[in-house]
Write a structure and sequence with these properties.
The structure is a homotetramer of 381-residue chains.
Chain A lengths: L3 E8 L3 H16 L4 E9 L3 H11 L4 E2 L2 H6 L5 E4 L6 H10 L3 E4 L7 H14 L3 E3 L7 H11 L6 E9 L20 H4 L3 H17 L2 E9 L4 E3 L6 E3 L5 E8 L4 E7 L8 E8 L2 E6 L5 E6 L9 E5 L22 H16 L7 H20 L3 E2 L4
Parallel strand pairs in A: 1-2, 1-4, 2-3, 4-5, 5-6, 7-12
Antiparallel strand pairs in A: 7-13, 8-11, 8-17, 9-10, 11-12, 13-14, 14-15, 15-16
Chain lengths: 381, 381, 381, 381
């Protein structure tokens, strides 16, 4: 196999910049790939931060202006790890320059922005993906396999939660580094775009499209100091959001997210109830899948706690030995592996921008329903 | 202490007739009561069933017509354990006859029926209660104590589920003994009145009133053989119901119930997230309470699994020793103990008919919202 | 079916007197029995206690001298619920008088005492049983069924623990009511006879005989105030005991018990590892059985948590409905049901005195090994 | 800070070769180190394997003879990742050559071998460590902190298990790549050196020295095909081993390991019971620590499940954000970080060869006791 180097530029050196870079650096040690990522450039607004990051992670170069990155001929792929309000502009420029694009989720702040981005990458014909990484936690991928094999039968219920507790203090400011998620201008929305978007992406992947939604949103802390303006400003994001929905396959969905649930740091959970079997998973114990099969003999029937570490589990033949778990960061490695393998095969690998736009449309309907209290059909562009 | 005998007549010998009778028979062995229940009469439509039940449980007499029970002078209290469509008529007659009334939940099929019943018992001035027994599971009572002591602080979220899986088969008929819960004429509604009513009663007790709701209901199996008509008939009940709500205290609620969740037999769960602490409980492990206190030292902070068996736990000084759990049936014993103690003290003990009518009003709003898809204010009579 | 009344006298009104009496009183409400217990007499040394207990539980009479009980012609069965140092004497007298005997565990303080008791009941030909009640927790009975059906295949490992934490304080006295378990004269031994005896009884029932043992015992608190002598006295019991053993079937056993394990109140656990499957159970969640079957398809293989409440589970058709758990006290009801059913069938129902003596012999070997530090063969009388 | 490169040669490219190499490659991305590992050479007997490994992981060179590695002047540190029967010879040579030595556990096949190795590194004055990596799982390190702070008080009990199920099939051969652990010549012992050694290392670290032991060992499958001789040969290792022990601090220990426990792949568990608090952990959910504090208010007292992901947990400020777990491989990264930090500070960092030799002495006593059935004092060299 001849390997082809794909020179990657990572834009943004925050939490996601680190998570993605770690994945690029590590993927080749564990996966055999035809196309392999090369850490060509990293971009941060602060020259010092860019240089330090480049040195720590082994990037060949660093930049302070993302436009400069896109101009460079020695960059094949652009990874957008910056706040949501920059996704559209960078993606449009990168597509115009013919770059491969990997964009952190959510795709955009709004469905309108997302639509432009989908149009741009599809017009340019560039490979693209959005980092809904939880699809590639092995236990979640296993859930997908079991569903696709028909083990659950007709689906009746899908429920998901993403619970955090980090914004309960009224003293927490909004805006700026690390806190842009509280600033509606930068983030577009609160828990809906940040957390429920993950739940929706997984749900659509596992259970198909969402047809209509009815939501309730709340902002518990109405005003916070804004780090960028220096003043107390209204909080524009949703602190909490719950919605009911109907899927295209006739099943019922309930979704909830909040940053005001004491005791939960990043508790993404889902459960799916089918005619024959049910599945449940949560992010706090991401290496396990719970499975209940009603066709088991009645006296030994029970929820099975599957420790997803054996070699026949998705991705797990690449790692250690049975019983030894992997963690959060590996989901990114898997996404890199699959995406680059898709490049070798010349095939799109989900979630593409188009896939992510479907999630965006659900978020849009949820937020609209949260505002007006009525059921909203989900737009299907 | 002089004991006063309260001569009880149990109407209905189904599952609830057994559960209540067991409680009456057992309460005096474990609780010191000023008023004590005497098993005076049991009533079932079939003479053989009535006699057999009387003999098995030690009732002094048996009847086949509930009207006859109410006419009897030697009956002080009437316990209504019959299907929902009979609650109103029996309760009205019993109130008119000046009997103490204990009524199985839900209070009635509709809020209109419930309103008549509340008016009747209050006009008659008779002690009354509705068997929302889960309040008196020790772990749930402990939750109430912790909340009332302010341990949770401001409440942000309340969520509850009641999940079952016993009606998935399309071959299951509706109507008649054991299956009247599927017959809308007998039951009034499906999971809303049968299961969510429990969740709502507990929620109001723990978290205060519900102001508005938005619901989604579904009947997955549209037609079933009807045991009473002998024909395939439309199914009028809700097989599943989920709703969003806002509580009077500003917290957000999410509720869901279904009989189509594989792997769950009677999984009633609730979780409450407050500013300082959170609480969670479920019926499948009813002797445990989960508690998270954010004020714990950070390095040893975690969800605590409290095994509610020690003598300083609610009701538990009456039973065995630490580590030895009680079960489902004991919640009824506790309700009998508290209600009869209330008789001795001359005080009403909740849930009264009036308390249960508040739950009925929430159910009414939920079902209406399920039909028209809009938010409904909860009537506060 | 003609019912035959069996007039029972309960000797001892402590914790076990209550637990057994509750079982006698309740069994007929849930089980159809040919022989049924009648609460004929209760015996306590204090006349007040005896009378109060009789009144509370509905005994026809009360006594203060157990010898008087045995003399009475209207007593068919004697239930020994007194401290261990009285078992032998009462049992011998009761056997001589031809009474049915139910004896609280352990059978005796020593194997020598036990041997006399076995000889006595067998010579007298009276039905007899010892209250190793945990065999009849439905989850444990289910384990027995699964093993007997061969689901586990060859057994490699058996491990059991019984962990408590109630004697850690040095201020706790020994001796007298409620504390006789700390007094070696009354109890015979500490955790070995009190707790490990339970583990051993279950183990022999599930996994067959024990051939040899090697033990370690410890008394952490060497002296305690003695309530009977009024002085600080040496503590003669074992506070903790762990032992290794080999079963007759070639499997290895590890057993441990202590009253110095913070966080555990009555945590009896066992786990059995077989060639094909494994089973685990614990008393703190007694209504669940954990089961792992290696023959399950590899990707969905995991420990199953079986909620033992369905009607096809052992004993559970007699109680409530799926999902609603029973508790500790029900194990006694089941033992009464089975023992009295054995009377109707004219068959011995284990654990008999002879069965309990096998456990006694293991305890004897364990204590001897704890003293001299060598492996001891278990005597097989 | 001036960084000093430490040129590492990894000898052995099996499972541990990969795990260690991953740690060297990754540590600098997450930890700030004064001394940093450089992947200078890798050694495997097969030239093709050595080259492929070097290429995949980015080693500067590769070798096929470990002696050649030690001769090279451009190697500062040697990491021994080969089977146990080679540890002594390589370590002695590396010490003689003045190399820093990192040796996979167990230190050696026997205490005699280990003693030579300790003498060699101490005579040479070279920094040294043994890869008992579980000390550096954050939850285990947290346990150490809590114990050292005195939170548990006097310790009564320590128990540990390491349960696997991968050698149950009689068809599994012994010897050669991947199966040398079944070959007593290569491994020295079975579960004792492979698995219990981990348990003992942690135990000594957390609870101090072991004074005496009494063990039971078993080889369930007596003969297996040997891959090196091509014949069916007796199995010389222990398939299972359980032992009782006494610690220097007066606490009692129970340890068990087996490869015949269906349902457990790598279930290393420990639990420690102290006067005030208890701690429990297991490897299958390595990111959690269970903690029970008896000093908690009684009504909210329970086992706490601590999700060890917050930034104030050991090592966790280096990784992601609260709620996002790390996995098995990170324990090696932490050991590299600590060991190299020790180089910068000029201080030994445990477990050193001397620390590992203490574990070796316990293993030696355990195996001897397993042979003769008596209690053995643990040698303290």
């Amino acid at each position: 196999m001849t390997r082809k180097d794909v020179r990657v530029a990572v834009i943004g050196t925050g939490f996601m910049g680190r998570a993605h870079t770690n994945a690029y650096r590590k993927v080749g040690n564990f996966f055999e790939l035809g196309h392999r990522p090369v850490l060509q450039a990293v971009c941060a607004r602060s020259p010092g931060a860019a240089e330090a990051f480049a040195q720590k992670w082994g990037f060949a170069s660093h930049e302070t202006d993302w436009r400069r990155v896109i101009e460079r001929d020695d960059i094949d792929a652009v990874d957008i790890c910056t706040p949501n309000d920059t996704h559209r502009e960078i993606a449009l420029a990168a597509a115009a320059a013919g770059k491969i694009i990997l964009c952190e989720k959510p795709l955009a702040r709004t469905a309108a922005e997302g639509a432009e981005m989908v149009a741009a990458v599809e017009a340019a014909g560039v490979p693209n993906t959005v980092w809904y990484n939880y699809r590639r936690v092995p236990a979640v991928t296993l859930a997908k396999q079991l569903i696709d094999e028909g083990k659950l039968g007709r689906i009746y219920h899908y429920r998901a939660q993403f619970l955090q507790d980090w914004t309960i203090s009224e003293d927490l400011p909004q805006g700026g580094a690390g806190l842009w998620r509280l600033d509606v201008g930068a983030a577009g929305s609160g828990v809906t775009g940040d957390l429920l978007a993950h739940c929706i992406d997984t749900a659509i992947w596992l259970n198909g499209g969402v047809s209509k939604v009815s939501a309730m949103t709340e902002t518990f802390v109405k005003e916070r100091h804004h780090n960028l303006t220096g003043k107390v400003e209204p909080v524009g994001i949703d602190d909490a959001c719950a919605f009911l929905c109907r899927f295209d396959n006739g099943s019922l969905g309930t979704f909830e997210s909040t940053r005001y649930a004491r005791g939960h740091k990043a508790l993404y959970t889902f459960e799916i109830n089918g005619e024959h079997a049910s599945i449940a998973w949560d992010l706090h114990d991401l290496h396990r899948l719970s499975y209940f099969d009603h066709r088991d003999e009645s006296r030994t029937r029970g929820w099975r706690s599957i420790h997803v570490t054996d070699g026949d589990m998705p991705y797990m033949d690449k790692w250690w030995v049975p019983g030894l778990q992997i963690g959060y960061e590996h989901s990114f490695v898997h996404q890199v592996a699959d995406f680059f393998d898709g490049l070798s095969r010349g095939e799109a690998v989900g979630p593409t921008f188009r896939d992510a736009q479907i999630t965006q449309q659900v978020c849009e309907a949820v937020l609209a329903s949260g505002r007006d209290g009525t059921w909203h059909d989900v737009a299907k562009d």
